[in-house]
Amino acid sequence: MLIRVVLLALAFAAQATDLRDALRLGRTPDEALYASFSRGYDLSPTQPVASAEVVTEFRRAVMLVRERARLGDLSVTEYDLGVALKPFAGTVTIVAQVNLRPLNTFTKPPLYDLYISTGRSTPPVGASTIRREAVFPMGAPGGSMMAVRIEATFPRDTILAAAAPELVVTDDGAELLWRGRLDLSRFR
Questions:
Q1: Cα–Cα distance between 93 and 77 in angstroms, integer?
Q2: Which of 15, 74, 128, 145 is 20 to 30 A from residue 29's alpha carbon, by CA?
Q3: What is the pLDDT of residue 18?
Q4: Mean pLDDT in residue range 36-55
Q5: Cα 87 to Cα 134: distance, rounded to the nearest angstrom
Q6: CA dihedral 33, 36, 40, 44 (to 10 degrees)
Q7: β-pair type (176-181, 91-99)
Q8: Are β-strands 147-155 and 129-135 bridged in parallel, bridged antiparallel, or unpaired?
């Protein structure tokens, strides 16, 4: 029982430290520091996947604080941040933008998919939530869709338990567009 209490206290202390760090980083006026922090969560995809990034709980906390600070609200506390993060506890979100062929005829975002391959002998991990948004070029309205932005959320523990987790992006015909190693240990 005592060991359980001590472990619980250590977990709360670690969470409090993370929240304080997120508040500090989210409020920093140093744009280069924030940009460097954000680049650390970028993955290195190949075409047609234009970009892919990881959003951990810590990064989400920093992003929430940053957005509130951008709006002039510097009153966010550790408690407020903890409450805002509760729906995202134990999850990791992957955001990928996939370029479409220039002469595509899509009228709505295509059903491109993003999932985690866990290894040869284990089943893949599907997203608990997935959102697809159309991306249009800047300028004249009425242009054709140039990309689709996929945002998928996964349980963190399942990815960590996988033998060889890889992020996989497929098109609406289940054709492989890109796959890349996903090492969550390098992200805070």
A1: 24
A2: 15
A3: 85
A4: 94
A5: 25
A6: 170
A7: unpaired
A8: antiparallel
3-class SS letters over the chain: CHHHHHHHHHHHHHHHHHHHHHHHHHCCCCHHHHHHHHHCCECCCCCCEEEEEEECHHHHHHHHHHHHHHCCCCCCCHHHHHHHHHHHCCEEEEEEEEECCCCCCCCCCCCCEEEEECCCCCCCECCCEEEEEEECCCCCCCCCCCEEEEEEEEEHHHHHHCCCCEEEEECCCCCEEEEEECCHHHCC
Tell me the two tokens of residue 131.
Answer: 């959102």
Structure confidence by residue, pLDDT tens digits, 149-171? 999 999 999 999 888 899 999 99
d(CA 167, CA 125): 10
Which carries the bigger pLDDT value, residue 9 or residue 181?
181
Backbone angles phi, psi at 18, to 5 degrees: -60, -45
Phi, psi at 16, each rounded to 5° = -65, -40
Domain ranges of the chain: 2-186
Dig out the tokens for 146 from the structure.
């140039």
Whose structure tokens read 């001590």? Answer: 6
For 187, what's the count of Cα atoms within 13 Å in the CB-facing half-sphere?
Answer: 24
